[in-house]
């Protein structure tokens, strides 16, 4: 069947429709699809309906092609291996396209005095691209990039379909792996067409994804994973509510509902509409008294969100349930209560380090209906990654993520450090009954944290909202394998959002500060560090994982107004002994909570230069003031 579709600029495109009824789509969607059919030149259009038959059909195709490997030792699970050049998000190829540079990134001191925006080097808080350069770059990539391939049209909702805080999207892709993953990570259903139809102005976020491998193929395909790794570009157009991702199949670059839409584009929507789109888990904790509280926590990628969100408490009497593990959309309701929804539908979790001891809930969740990417595969058709050594027979024969035969103890790694499991949230044994509630859950505490090997205590609490916003703005962490940065060095990652800001970070902080309004109950703000090292042994000072409940227990007491804190220069610290460490051997409290003066003096100065160099005049004065106050307090150490 071929439909004739009129382009927005006039002219007609002939669209061979492999599946679905093109002319029944909302008019704006028809125009959107037609525009990209015209540009990308696919051989046909396939309108996804989200059904199980569709899933089966697509999975079968991928298995036939060799991209998906069915795991015979697990239930409805698949593994795949990417091109080794396409294993993580690529921040230096991720751009925000706006008229002026200052809309996207702050003009820190380092970037002042240039004649032309386009001459200014990229900063650390996002990459700006001008419209004209974006047009050129896309013109050299997109035309004909789907030739010989089918264009799939995926209707999806971030948040429960039709919910007051939810948003619709339509993703175009030529990569079947993306369809299966989007079905897990977002809500893919034709009901989205109705939601778009019924919304004012037929609103949806336009997501365009192509792997950039038209047929006949010009390059050798590695691991049946076609891409154009040399020319990856992920461009966001906040004003147009559009994302164009070229050349990569890796999750963070290709599942456009996640980082691109739910963080970068959504942060702009949130600014415009008065809410917050954040890189945060959402969890519920029920304490010994049976009272439930909800927390949102922002840690940079691969710094512990998924683990915390579904942790198994190590002390009796507590219950943790997960609402989300990566992204929170939060707004104050009419009673002044901050409420959060998880816009996602699944977990895209870091595999290495996950095991039956550290995160039994994630292990249990990922036993069925899961897509594993870049993990090791055992000969009996199960998965293996670093951290599972004690949980399988040491003689098990394993194929590594690069396809080598391997055994535990041999050189090299079985799994890529950024290998992932992708699994529906609904099958998590501790998923919260309200996780899909369209109004979200009430947040009592916001937690910031990162990997800080030195100087930073296990936990402290901000004095107030402003101080808390400064703590978030000053967030730092060791780089991880989640993006292309060299792992190990401590780098700034403000609000754990550095790779995900959709607009000028200085303005983003203004927006955070503006949340403080009369009649609102502001959540308490905490900072945690599970990763402080014993400077003598190089081992973690804190056991982490399920034992982190002990720290949350202290936070709950603080929220309840209990007198369990002492004032310190950096914020409220736990009174000695006020965190339950019963049953833990050798917890070195003094070292865990010490505040080395020299370290903090240096840290404050370094943060000040970072703010000045990178944010400059765009930084709200209130944040500079808070930092200055911190500096004065640290001098008294
Ligand atoms: P996310 O990317 O922020 O969701 O981080 P994950 O929860 O997936 O964790 C990333 C890595 O950090 C995994 O290898 C975890 O095993 C490890 N990790 C998570 N929580 C802790 C903790 O409390 N202590 C320690 N030492 N490692 C942790
Ligand atoms: P993560 O999510 O935060 O769980 O690592 C993916 C990412 O941020 O790249
Ligand atoms: Mn993330
Ligand atoms: Mn995670």
Radius of gyration: 24 Å
* N-C termini distance: 76 Å
Heterogens:
guanosine-5'-diphosphate, 2-phosphoglycolic acid, manganese (II) ion
Helix-and-strand structural type: alpha/beta
Keywords: Decarboxylase, GTP-binding, Lyase, Manganese, Metal-binding, Nucleotide-binding
Family: Belongs to the phosphoenolpyruvate carboxykinase [GTP] family.
GO molecular function: GTP binding; manganese ion binding; phosphoenolpyruvate carboxykinase (GTP) activity
Domain Phosphoenolpyruvate carboxykinase GTP-utilising N-terminal: 31-271
How would you concisely characterize the structure shown here?
The protein is α/β, with parallel strands linked by helices and 637 residues long. The protein is built from 16 helices and 33 strands.
């Amino acid at each position: 069947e071929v439909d004739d579709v009129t382009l927005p600029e006039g002219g007609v495109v002939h669209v061979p429709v492999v599946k679905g009824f093109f002319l029944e789509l909302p008019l704006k969607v028809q125009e959107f699809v037609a525009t990209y059919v015209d540009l990308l030149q696919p051989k046909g259009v396939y309108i996804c309906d989200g059904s199980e038959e569709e899933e089966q059909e697509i999975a079968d195709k991928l298995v036939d092609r060799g991209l998906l490997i069915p795991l015979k030792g697990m239930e409805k699970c698949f593994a795949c291996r990417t091109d080794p050049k396409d294993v993580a998000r690529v921040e230096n190829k991720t751009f925000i396209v706006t008229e002026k540079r200052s809309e996207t990134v702050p003009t820190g001191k380092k970037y002042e005095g240039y004649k032309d925006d386009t001459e200014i080097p990229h900063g650390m808080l996002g990459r700006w691209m001008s419209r004209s350069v974006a047009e050129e770059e896309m013109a050299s990539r997109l035309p004909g990039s789907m030739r010989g391939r089918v264009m799939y049209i995926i209707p999806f909702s971030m948040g429960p379909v039709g919910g007051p805080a939810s948003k619709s999207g339509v993703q175009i892709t030529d990569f079947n792996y993306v369809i299966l993953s989007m079905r897990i990570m977002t809500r893919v259903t034709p009901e989205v067409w109705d939601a778009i139809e019924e919304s004012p102005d037929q609103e949806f976020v336009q997501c365009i994804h192509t792997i950039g491998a038209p047929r006949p193929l010009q390059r050798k395909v590695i691991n049946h994973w076609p891409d154009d790794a040399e020319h990856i570009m992920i461009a966001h157009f906040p004003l147009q509510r559009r994302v164009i991702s070229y050349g990569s199949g890796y999750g963070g670059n290709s599942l456009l509902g996640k980082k691109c839409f739910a963080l970068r584009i959504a942060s702009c929507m949130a600014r415009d509409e008065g809410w917050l789109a954040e890189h945060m888990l959402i969890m519920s904790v029920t304490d010994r008294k049976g009272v439930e509280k909800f927390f949102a926590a922002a840690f940079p990628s691969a710094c512990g969100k998924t683990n915390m969100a579904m942790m198994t408490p190590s002390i009796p009497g507590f219950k943790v349930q997960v609402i989300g593990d990566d992204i929170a959309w939060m707004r104050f309701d009419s009673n002044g209560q901050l409420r959060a929804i998880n816009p996602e539908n699944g977990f895209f979790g870091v595999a290495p380090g996950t095991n039956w001891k550290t995160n039994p809930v994630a292990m249990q969740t990922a036993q069925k209906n899961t897509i594993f990417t870049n993990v090791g595969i055992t000969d009996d058709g199960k998965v293996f990654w670093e951290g599972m050594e004690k949980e399988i027979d040491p003689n098990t024969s394993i194929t590594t993520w690069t396809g080598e035969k391997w055994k535990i103890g041999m050189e090299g790694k079985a799994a890529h450090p950024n290998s992932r499991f992708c699994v529906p949230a609904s099958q998590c044994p501790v998923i919260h009954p309200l996780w899909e509630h369209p109004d979200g859950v009430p947040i009592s505490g916001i937690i910031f944290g990162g990997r800080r090997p030195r100087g930073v205590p296990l936990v402290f609490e901000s004095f107030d909202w402003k101080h808390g916003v400064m703590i978030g703005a000053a967030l730092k962490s060791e780089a991880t394998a989640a993006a292309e940065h060299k792992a190990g060095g401590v780098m700034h990652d403000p609000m754990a959002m550095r790779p995900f800001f959709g607009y000028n970070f200085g303005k983003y902080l203004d927006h955070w500060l503006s949340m403080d309004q009369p009649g609102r109950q502001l959540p308490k703000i905490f900072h945690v560090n599970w990763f402080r090292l014993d400077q003598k042994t190089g081992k973690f000072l804190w056991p982490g994982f399920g034992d982190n409940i002990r720290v949350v227990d202290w936070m709950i007491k603080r929220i309840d107004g209990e007198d369990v804190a002492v004032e310190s220069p950096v914020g409220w610290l736990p009174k000695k002994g006020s965190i339950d460490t019963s049953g833990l051997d050798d917890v070195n409290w003094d070292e865990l909570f010490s505040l080395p003066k020299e370290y903090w003096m240096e840290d404050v100065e370094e943060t000040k230069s970072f703010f000045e160099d990178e944010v400059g005049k765009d930084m709200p004065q209130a944040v500079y003031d808070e930092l200055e106050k911190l500096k004065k307090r640290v001098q008294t150490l």
